[in-house]
Design a protein that fits this description.
Length: 192
């Protein structure tokens, strides 16, 4: 049974390389028969957080309303992030903070990347804490990619497909398991 995933990408730099990873993940999820929405802050251009979506009381700007609609129907979130000074990129944090209840009772999965060897794993630790607080706890596994500019083409094709396939497959298997489990429990009702 197909699932619906939202991919949240977190960079607005002009020379950003992580979009390659976001495109790769989007392609891999779709190849499994699922639907995706890739949320790119360069496209949505949300203002710095002044009011959360829920504080607009039915009169939210169109981009926030569109995102809320994506989030309400999704079965899980995939967060694709590099690390900025060992932390969460500001554009991603801003994108995340505009919402709250729309994330509840859905799992998240963290895909990190970097220009160097470590694959952005330090941001993953901070994201775990933030995502849990937002009501979308992350699955145990993290998928990380180092040397992102040489690992993927601009369109998101891995330069070494076998090296990317095995960890990505295991990661997405785990995400699907959690998404189906949360979906089944949401159908029964939520704690509040």
């Amino acid at each position: 049974m197909p699932l619906d995933f939202v991919i949240l990408y977190g960079s607005v730099r002009t020379e950003r390389q992580g979009i390659r990873v976001a495109r790769f993940i989007e392609s891999e999820i779709r190849a499994r028969g699922h639907t995706t929405a890739l949320i790119d802050p360069m496209v949505y251009r949300l203002p710095l957080l002044d009011r959360m979506y829920k504080e607009y009381a039915g009169d939210a700007p169109a981009p926030l309303e569109q995102l809320a609609n994506f989030y309400r129907k999704t079965d899980g979130f995939v967060i694709v992030s590099g690390e900025y000074n060992h932390g969460i990129p500001p554009a991603l944090k801003n994108l995340l903070d505009h919402f709250l209840e729309e994330y509840f009772w859905r799992p998240s999965a963290i895909v990190s990347y970097s220009a160097g060897n470590y694959g952005g794993v330090r941001v993953a630790m901070q994201l775990r804490m933030t995502l849990s607080e937002l009501g979308m706890p992350s699955i145990p596994s993290i998928l990380s990619f180092g040397r992102v500019s040489s690992a993927f083409s601009e369109t998101g094709e891995p330069h070494d497909p076998p090296a990317a396939a095995a960890p990505t497959g295991r990661f997405l298997n785990e995400l699907e398991w959690y998404a189906r489990a949360f979906q089944a429990e949401r159908a029964k009702g939520t704690p509040y």
